[in-house]
């Protein structure tokens, strides 16, 4: 096809996933929404609108919904549908048709394109193995161009670095030197030909969250949450409250479990309900103390996008202990047979039945709230290494519980954070039993640094 046009989107955010030619005389440019579930600050959506305007065609938005997203349950699906409904309502208000398909993603989008007069498809970027495969499968099946637009990190992955980075210290300077160039606001574009009344149909009507959920055959074993409601407006409410509090003393307060001094924005980033660029600009421009702004941006940009770097450049091993560095592999092999001070079954761990009241409180908060303060996440994970008989089973158990209960599980941050427990993006420490050279976190250290009893009481309510 002709050279890929920018349409006011930074060139580094664009990639054509197949070599198909633009369909001459087609009526529609489709935005296949999957990762960026929002109607604003969405470069993929704006790109599709501008491309449709350039071709004098209609832009329509299509979302493909499946029942069996890996490891997702009712808790995750309810949040997803809440955000999706808001996005659909706002997209419709912008004069654009929103269509919900139900079934295998690549097959459904390819079938829709074939049955309708579509000239090109735009999608947002994915990072995990199965999400990347859905896009590559679609690229093979489509007879029109499939253009991917990066919109869920501040700095596009390959632009930040052309290799897998070893740690935050090796990517920090690279990525922070590019943030200003990639964090600018995405200008909204009005469609020249509003499409909301065109005669195209989907598989489901998105009239209500419960109506869609009732039609899905999903795992209903984990109950949804009342505290976190999906959608861009809810994400912005959390962000606004966080900014008004001057980031709650984030640099130090985020580590105090009893204070819960975090933004609670990670579930919304996970589902693409808010742009990381919007968050970056608002935090950077806030009146909060410099140390708190810098501390938050370190987590939002450096740490979060280090995780995306890892998953992108280690597609075959990001969910395996094979991904940790050699020193960590060696120390685990050396200490594999060390006697563990405690041993609990996975069921006992899941139900918070250990001899550590702080750990049990963390597990309770995970189950009931789908969230944990930063330090307690790390402590919770490190203790599982001492509660199970092998590193492999500790890893599998940690990832299982993480992905089952956390609202922001099953994404690059989750895979990276769980492997951090086993040495990823870390260095070797003083050698100890069980942990070897892996970083340790003990109950004694927790008690010395933080008000653990206050945390336990907060969780008890």
From TrEMBL:
CC cofactor: FAD; (6R)-5,10-methylene-5,6,7,8-tetrahydrofolate
Molecular functions per Gene Ontology: deoxyribodipyrimidine photo-lyase activity; DNA binding
Swiss-Prot/TrEMBL catalytic activity: cyclobutadipyrimidine (in DNA) = 2 pyrimidine residues (in DNA)
Record keywords, A-Z: DNA damage, DNA repair, DNA-binding, FAD, Flavoprotein, Lyase
Keyword DNA damage in record: yes
InterPro entries assigned to the protein according to its UniProt record, in alphabetical order: Crypto/Photolyase_FAD-like_sf (IPR036134), Crypto/Photolyase_N_sf (IPR036155), DNA_photolyase_N (IPR006050), Photolyase_Class-2 (IPR052219), Rossmann-like_a/b/a_fold (IPR014729)
EC number: 4.1.99.3
UniProt record, GO biological process: photoreactive repair
UniProt superkingdom: Bacteria
Sequence similarity: Belongs to the DNA photolyase class-2 family.
Name under which the protein is recorded: Deoxyribodipyrimidine photo-lyase
Species name: Neolewinella xylanilytica
């Amino acid at each position: 096809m002709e050279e890929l046009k920018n349409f006011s989107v930074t060139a580094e955010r664009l990639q054509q996933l197949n070599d198909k030619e633009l369909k001459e005389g087609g009526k529609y440019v489709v935005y296949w929404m999957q990762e960026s579930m929002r109607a604003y600050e969405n470069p993929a959506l704006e790109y599709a609108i501008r491309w449709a305007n350039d071709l004098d065609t209609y832009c329509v938005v299509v979302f493909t919904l499946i029942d069996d997203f890996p490891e997702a349950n009712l808790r995750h699906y309810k949040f997803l549908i809440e955000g999706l409904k808001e996005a659909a309502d706002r997209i419709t208000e912008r004069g654009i048709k929103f269509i919900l398909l139900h079934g295998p993603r690549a097959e459904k989008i390819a079938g829709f394109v074939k049955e309708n007069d579509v000239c090109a498809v735009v999608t947002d970027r994915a990072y995990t193995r199965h999400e990347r495969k859905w896009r590559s499968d679609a690229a093979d099946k489509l007879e029109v161009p499939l253009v991917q637009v990066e919109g869920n990190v501040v700095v596009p992955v390959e632009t930040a670095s052309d290799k897998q980075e070893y740690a935050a210290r090796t990517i920090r300077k690279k990525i922070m030197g590019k943030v200003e160039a990639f964090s600018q606001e995405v200008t909204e574009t009005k469609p020249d030909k509003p499409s909301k009344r065109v005669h195209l149909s989907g598989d489901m009507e998105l009239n209500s969250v419960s109506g869609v959920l009732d039609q899905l055959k999903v795992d209903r074993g984990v109950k949804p949450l009342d505290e976190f409601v999906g959608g861009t407006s809810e994400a912005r409410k959390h962000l606004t409250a966080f900014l008004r509090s001057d980031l709650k003393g984030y640099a130090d307060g985020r580590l105090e479990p009893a204070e819960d001094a975090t933004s609670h924005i990670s579930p919304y980033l996970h589902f693409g309900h808010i742009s990381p660029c919007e968050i970056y600009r608002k935090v950077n421009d806030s009146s909060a103390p410099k140390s708190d702004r810098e501390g938050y941006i370190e987590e939002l940009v450096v740490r979060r996008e280090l995780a995306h770097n890892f998953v992108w450049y280690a597609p075959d091993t990001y969910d395996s202990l094979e991904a940790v560095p050699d020193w960590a592999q060696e120390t685990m092999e050396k200490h594999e047979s060390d006697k563990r001070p405690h041993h609990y079954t996975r069921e006992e761990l899941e139900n918070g039945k250990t001899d550590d009241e702080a750990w049990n409180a963390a597990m309770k908060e995970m189950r009931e709230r789908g969230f944990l303060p930063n330090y307690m996440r790390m402590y919770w994970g490190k203790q599982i290494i001492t509660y199970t008989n092998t590193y492999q089973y500790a890893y599998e158990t940690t990832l299982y519980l993480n992905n089952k209960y956390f609202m922001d599980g099953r994404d690059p941050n989750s895979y990276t954070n769980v492997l951090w427990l086993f040495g990823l993006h870390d260095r070797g420490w003083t050698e100890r039993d069980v942990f070897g050279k892996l970083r340790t976190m003990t109950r004694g250290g927790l008690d010395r640094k933080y008000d653990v009893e206050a945390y336990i009481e907060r969780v008890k309510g």
